[in-house]
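Person: I have long wanted to understand how a fold can be written as tokens. Underneath my words sits a plain record pairing an amino acid chain with its backbone structure tokens. Those tokens are not coordinates but codes from a learned vocabulary of shapes. I should like you to check that the lines agree and flag anything odd. The protein I mean follows directly.
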Amino acid sequence: MPELSPRRRMLVLAICCMSLLIVSLDNTILNVALPSMRDELDASVAGMQWTVDAYTLVLACLLMLAGSTADRIGRRKVFQAGLVVFTAGSVLCSLAPNLESLVVFRMVQAVGGSMLNPVAMSIITNTFTEPRARARAIGVWGGVVGISMAAGPLIGGLLVDGVGWRSIFWINVPVGLAALLLTWRYVPESRAPRPRRADPVGQLLVMALLGSLTYAIIESDPLYAAVSVLALAGLLLYEPRRREPLIDLRFFRSAPFSGANLIAVFAFAALGGFLFVTTLYLQDVRGLSALDAGLYMLPMAAMTFVCAPLSGRLVGTHGPRLPLLVAGTAMTASGLMFAAFEAEATATGLFTGFVLFGLGFGLVNAPITNTAVSGMPRTQAGVAAAIASTSRQTGQTLGVAVVGAVLAAGVSPSSPTDGFVDASRPAWWVITACGLGILVAGALTSGRWAQQTAQRAAERLEPATEHPMPASR
């Protein structure tokens, strides 16, 4: 990639953030619209799970393929293709006549989405090469998640109450088209000097693993659980034998990289479960409108918006340890308030729980991304970022699947509000466990020993002629 002026670099960052905005908005807006979708399409709790998970599952399955393909044929080219497919999928979702069609069209959206975030992150990491500048850019990237969380419930509530749930997909169209034109005009093309070969068998094994595991959880099917175990075994046996595998298992010899991906699973499982259970609670149990539910969730979104760029600056100056420890503590405390102390019973309890969760989630995202790409060879930045993005989407998929399965087991199919509060207690314990996982993994994988393992892993991965990406402090 040619050297860009500071102004051009910021413009590239802004364009990449536009792609994250529409993908993140799509998730937060969708959660607010779930009750309206369920009523119009006559869907069960499992149907609502599939509306969310069809997207995140396909995204998780294809992110690594998109990252390696972008490194091979051109990041701008793949990024533009993703914008076209995602925008077209959004139009199709708005026209879906039934639940089955909506799930299929969500999958089309996800195909486009898989070409956006990891590729955009690869563009950013190749544009901002200095460690502190990169950490701050990633902090801005994380702040966009906060913007989407703040704006998503409010915009979604306004659209659902005023126009109907189908309108939530319309907002992606003008943003997607604008990002497409700006990308063509301002984002330079870039490729990896030594692109990796395609790995179709590895790709199929990843799809089999994630798809069967999600189906097994949502539908309580032990046969698919067995398929997921076999797919995992096949992946672990097959990938190390390939010269250029889809998932280079040597990445995971780095404790910070492994920790970042484990933390990503925990954090986004907590987010997926949190949004799923609180949206249904606020609208079904409390009887709030979609807009009022969005307003209730605003404290969480506001904290995420404030803390995400702060986290980027902390990572750039002090490293990932402090934001990870604070994030794990805050998210654990939030889950515990609902699981053990019935925080939903009072407005003060809800507010405090939402603020704590937003604080934790706002701090956790920048350390994940920065740790995943720091210290790795720059030519493999797309793959490293894609693995981290896959962990995020896998976590969100599993969070919705597990929390939805817990709720479905405790509520009446004919009356979703019956027993909802009691059924949600185990779900909140799951979210609490995720927060505790972030705390423990963050403590174990951010110290001096962990940095030494990262250096050794980078040396094994680094071609003789290339230098790894410098790590932030």
